[in-house]
Amino acid sequence: MPVLKNINELEAVREKARAHKKDRENNKLSIILGMGTCGIAAGANEVAAAVREELDKFDLEAEIIHVGCIGMCHNEPLLDIQQPGGARITYTKVTPALVGKIFEKHLIKGEYSKRWIFGQIPGANGEIVEGLPTYDELPFYGKQVRIALRNCGLIDPENIEDYLASGGYGGLAKALFKMSPDDVIEEVKDSGLRGRGGAGFLTGLKWEFCRKAKGYPKYVICNADEGDPGAFMDRSVLEGDPHALLEGMIIAAYAIGAPEGYIYCRAEYPLAIERLKIAIRQAYEMGLMGKNILGSDFSFDLKIKEGAGAFVCGEETALIASIEGKRGEPRPRPPYPAVAGLWGKPTNVNNVKSYAITSQILTKGADWFSEIGTDKSPGTAVFALTGKIKNTGLIEVPMGISLREIIYDIGGGIPDKKEFKAVQTGGPLGGCLPVEALDTPVDFDSLTAAGATMGSGGMIVVDQETCMVEFARYFLTFASAESCGKCVPCRLGGQRLLEVLTRITSGDGTLEDLDEIERISKYMREGSLCALGQLTPGPVMASLRFFRAEYEAHVTEKFCEAGVCAGMFTYEIDADRCTGCGLCMKACPTKAIIGEKKVVHVIDQSQCIQCGACYDVCNLGAVLVKRKHELPVIEAAQGEGVI
Amino acid sequence: MGKVNLIIDGKEIQAEQGDTILQAARRHNHYIPILCDHPALPPEGACRICLVEIEGQRALHPSCTYPVTEGMVVETNTERVRAARKFNLELLISDHPLDCMTCEATGNCLLQDLAYEYEVKEDVFHGTRHHFSVNDPNPFIQVDRNKCILCRRCVRACREINGVEAISVFYRGFNAYIGFGADSSMDNSPCEFCGSCVEVCPTGALWPKLSLGQGRSWEVEKVQTTCPYCGVGCQLVLEVKDNKIIKVDSAWEGPSNHGWTCVKGRFGYDFIQHADRLDKPRVRKYLLDGKQKPAASKRDHEKEGNPWQWVEVDWEVALGITAEKMNQTRDTYGADSMGFLTSAKCLNEENYLMNKLTRQVIGTNSIDHCARL
Amino acid sequence: MTVTDIDIGLIEPILQEFREQKGAVIPILQRTQDIYGYLPEDAMVEISKKSGISISQLYGVATFYAQFNLEPRGRHLIQICDGTACHVKGAQKLVEAVENGFDLEAGGSDPDFEYTLEIVYCLGSCGLAPIALVDGQVYGNTTADSIVKNIKELD
Asked: In terms of residue numbers, what domain contains C38?
């Protein structure tokens, strides 16, 4: 690739990339494979090998394109076929064995098996296959508006041409040649974009503070230390569209006047780091980074820093300490990083999605962006939808959409005919909301008002099999283990709170403990140094608020209705539902289930260890969770199978 | 530097630009409790005891790190603030031994003072406590991590005052503790035993081994003096009980050391009352008897009547013999056969006189001084 | 701490590469661990000497981040579940068998650092109890004999 010396050369390269893409779409067979981390974990590499093998077998020539994650984790691995001048048709849950069959039907016989096909994306000239739903017609995608994820799953993240063809680096060119740094800041301010890391501070204002701060050099940092369990929004952008992040960062650096930047990415994302490295190298080679970008006066260098396993480094001052090679401990603000950040110099820290969105705001304008979403939370929100939900995956929705629409329309509701119980947003520092809150609009302020938080985009749905006390304890275990230990309320308060929760889930809790939870939580929020300590009690507070009865049952009746907390429930076989199939007997590790074929089975409580194996295998819902004292011990079976 | 006007607890005060709220309050002797801050060290913001309410701010903020701004209104002692402080003290006490009756720091312990002020009488959480062994083998400093509140004053003192960085926080969260070197003992680390860490420790976690069991903080008289070891002239504060030095503290106003000391100044005072220390002059018996130097093979310092025996005499006698021998030597071998070494433990005046004696009385320029080495 | 001989020269290129970079402690430690599998004390001392960062600071940083190991780990990782179901099905017997068979203690490694044994709590496969993971591979319905045999079959 030549070094681009001005905006005209950039446009020329873009036109070439578009022509190349059009040529491929019109004249070549394309096989598109989802090669995000999730796809690879589901077997995409094996599928890719099968694709090459089958193409040979059928003597077909095709361009194999590797793309990032399109968001359908539940359907991985994905394989798309786009015939010359045709629509792009998506096959889901593809196995190596299936590849040959798909090729035979689709490419040889021209048949489209609805059994395997998820949907289609219209071709370059709007071509579609009659009878197959387009992505827009499918509920999973129909309600989505993809800005941060605009290219994820659609382009090859390792090919800068693909990004250019999709209009990439247009925002940067506009900023560099048509706008002053102040104009850029005004544009971002006008868009109303709020930081996607979770706190929701106005991005443009943050940039302005940093631009106005005295000190040189200034730095821009991308926070890609996505540490929430069950969250992978940023990873998807890093793996699927790394140039979108780079473009946003260069724009921010231009606006702020920063000659240097860092991407702080967690080491657990090796594929993301690899793709970032490739993208940065390409950007340098084309003169989109480094000295005199696109022939302008502006120069910018970018480095990657790998994290080393500390959740708290997602906090901006801790992240900066970590880049400086110190323990990743936060420090009190003010002074804010915009004034005194990396090496004591003015520093701007934003989340991956904030930068990725910025490049689009510059391309399409502040008005375009602010019309999406709500007044106070314009734009879109990206969520990693996980837990007890049919369509797990990554989604981007306009702010203001209700939780219900996300969970039932996009997520497809709760699987296995189970009931929705709660949805946790904001990850281990967020909060859960009950069924009554399902119509809450999803935006920064409404979620906070409802008792949860927006966070950076984790959304975990749980059904009746989740004990809300244990669920809160799980998050608390995580958060307190990640406390840096610097300030007293977080170091010791988190530990004490966890001890109270552990007491309750192990049957030793009292009603006073519920007051103690509230007391510890209140003062941890009040006194902790950083957001980690302040928000650690969040999940406990929310679940105690909305599921207090469940907490009370744990302490007064020593009963866990979800059948999770050991020793606080028993399993009983419902005589009306049991058909005596024997599945539970086989599954029981302690031979506690007694019965003969086609005769109702019974559980010997003296042998049962409440491992739940019977509950899990029973297809008929015949194994029930009951209060402990309700069942007598069966005398006859005693003495058998005791270890 | 410009001035900043602000209101603390209803009082209008003037602070320097760049002050933190705590610094501004201290300028006006306005008390804000705190554990982790020390005037000689950069602020940390860790203990969360100095939290205050700032008008217009939703959250409480630590006064030790929050910079003053013009027109700022601060409340340092509201019910909300006191409740947050008390909670933090309760947390600290929940992982701190309640052995104040035998603790060395009693009476001189900030945690104890604040527990008293905020009426924290007992552990209200009954949770997990740490049980560290107190066995750091170094000769000078007892390290009792059970009493450590992780205020990190020692970490900062080691870095900022002595510049050694022998102390660091190890691990994190509830498992964090103060560590040395490769997670080793103090004497197996870069530690130089300047004792700055002991000086700034607000509890009994770091304590001089020499001072253990020697007395209570209220029993001592504090005496400021100049360290006798070298020519720097460090100021020290001696804790004296029954006319005996039991501990050395920093004199923060000392113009040449600003509170810092080296290992000798801090811990090297045990010679003063040592049984082996001479407090009267002694001469060899053969000198007293005016005899020639006997054969060394007959040497026995202790034996009554042995020519080598040390005999206690008064200054008159001792100096008389010394002067006589010096005269003899100069007369026999010449002034340049003699050399004089003086000590940094002597006063300037004494060293001056020694110089006069050497050059003018004896007549040689061969004089030197250990502090020059 | 077990003393093992390490070739300290292996980290010289790393120290050279990062010599001019400020704040490069974490990448230096990461690369050092890539070489030795953990952070040997000798290497830490060498890093301290060459980089001018005090040894205490280095350990402060290394113990902060979950990624760093200060103890060597065996070539093979054996994890035995001691959750409730596995416990009643005799997980403790598996632990003893591995400890005796390979000269190590739970939570530690054998003298040759071939094997590291960890106790874990509930892998969610109670129906197959007792469970063991050997280098990530799940073995269900394990017995003392079978786990020892499986481990011995490793290269």
From this structure: 8-64
Q: Mark whether B304 and B264 lie in a shared domain.
A: no
Q: What pLDDT does residue A641 have?
A: 40
Give the count of domains, chain C.
2
Per-residue pLDDT at C126 = 66
- Among candidate residues A403, A401, A398, the one with its CA nearest the CA of residue A424: A403
Q: Looking at the domain A570-630, which fold is it?
A: Alpha-Beta Plaits (3.30.70)
Q: Considering the domain boundaries, does residue C70 fall inside one? A: no
Give the pLDDT band (50/70/90) at residue B1: low
Domain range A20-135, CATH class: alpha beta
C42 in a structural domain:
yes
CB contact under 8 Å between C88 and A323, yes or no, is no
Q: Answer for the pair B179, B278: CB distance below 8 angstroms, yes or no.
A: no
Q: Do B173 and A523 touch (CB under 8 A)?
A: no
Q: Is residue B37 part of a domain?
A: yes
Residue A635 banded pLDDT, cuts 50, 70, 90: low
Two tokens at A126? 């709007």
pLDDT for C90 beyond 90 = no
Instruction: Give the per-residue pLDDT at A640.
Output: 43
Pairing type for strands C132-134 and C76-81 reads antiparallel
Find, in chain C, the residue whose alpha carbon is nearest to that of A327. Answer: C61
> What top-level class would CATH report for the domain A469-557?
mainly alpha
| Residue B321: domain span | 282-372
Determine the Cα–Cα distance for residues B359 and B357; give it in Å rounded to an integer.
6
> What pLDDT shows up at residue C123?
64
Q: Do C65 and A328 touch (CB under 8 A)?
A: yes
- Identify residues of C whose CB sits under 8 angstroms from chain A CBs: 22-27, 29-30, 53, 60-61, 64-68, 84-85, 88-90, 126-127, 129
pLDDT tens string B34-48? 999 999 999 999 999
Residue of chain B whose alpha carbon sits nearest to that of A516: B125
ipTM summary value? 0.90
Q: Does B59 touch chain A (CB under 8 A)?
A: yes
* Assigned token pair, A178: 């048509």
The CA distance from A76 to A79, in Å, is 9
Do residue C89 and residue A590 have CB atoms under 8 angstroms apart? yes
A30 pLDDT band, cuts 50/70/90, is very high
- List, for residues A247-269, the tens digit of each pLDDT value: 999 999 999 999 999 999 988 78
In terms of Cα–Cα distance, which of A340, A64, A288, A73 is closest to A171?
A: A288
Say if B232 falls within a structural domain.
yes
Residue C71 lies in a domain: no
CB A145: neighbour CB atoms within 10 A? Answer: 17
* Chain C residues near residue B183 by CB distance under 8 angstroms: 59, 63, 70
Q: What is the 3-state secondary structure (H, E, C) of A366-406?
A: HHHHHCCECCCCECEEEEEEEECCCCCEEEEEECCCEHHHH
Is C2 part of any domain?
no
CB contact under 8 A, A306 and C30: yes
Instruction: Tell me which of A268, A303, A347, A609 to substitute to probe the interface with C (most C C-beta atoms closer than 10 Å).
Output: A609
Q: Residue A322 half-sphere exposure, CB side, CA atoms within 13 Å?
A: 32
pLDDT digits (tens, 9 = 90+) for B88-113: 999 999 999 999 999 999 999 999 99
Q: Tokens for A505, please give them.
A: 């889930």
Residue A596 has pLDDT above 60, yes or no: yes
A630 pLDDT tier (thresholds 50, 70, 90):
low
How close is the nearest chain C Cα to the Cα of B173, in Å?
9
The nearest CA of chain C is from the CA of B140 a distance in Å of: 19
Determine the pLDDT at residue A643: 40
**CB-based burial label for B138 (10 Å; 0-12, 13-18, 19+):** middle
The string of pLDDT tens digits covering residues B148-165 is: 999 999 999 999 999 999
Q: Residue A180: CA atoms inside 13 Å, Cβ hemisphere, count?
A: 5
